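lol ok so funny story. i was supposed to be doing the assay writeup but got distracted and ended up predicting the structure for this chain instead. priorities right. anyway since i did it might as well share w the group, maybe its usefull for someone
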Amino acid sequence: MRSLPLTFCAAIAAGAISLPASAALAATANDDRSGTVSVSPSRVSPGGEVELRTEACGKGRSARGNSEAFASEARFEPADGKGLVAEARIRSDAAPDDYEVWVTCKDGHGKATGTVTVVHHSRPSPVAPVRAGGGGTAALAEEAADEGPGTRHAVIGLGLGAVAAVAVAFRSARRRRPAQH
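and the output, tada:
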């Protein structure tokens, strides 16, 4: 009769010992997270920069991200709120297409994927300071050159033409007069 309480106590002890182990396994299984990467802006031209955000790795961790469109690997750091943030530059020779972005958490317990679309614009714009004397103002100068002279230029031209006409008329009138001695 004494064996029944002893068996019951042994079963409770075995359950208590195995409970923390099963909870730890469940926590590990839940730690293998997968999520998404938000890319902003989602459409970018070659040479442009994008911001990447993910919550797949949890708060306070780090991760690395990459894509065939990126010039180099993106390194994620904790953001102000929750999740991780990184910046990446698009390769200058990237062809227009949709590219997959993948992120792997530093501890290996989490992955995330997203998409960035590379587009080409008809007019390339500088992505870094240009040592060409004017840099980004070249596009504005081109627009101004297409407009032609304005009203101010027309008034100045008419005024100069009138002054020239008066000078020619005055000089012609002086030559026509006979010289008086």
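DSSP finds three helices and eight strands in the chain. The two ends are 161 Å apart (CA to CA).
back to the writeup now i swear
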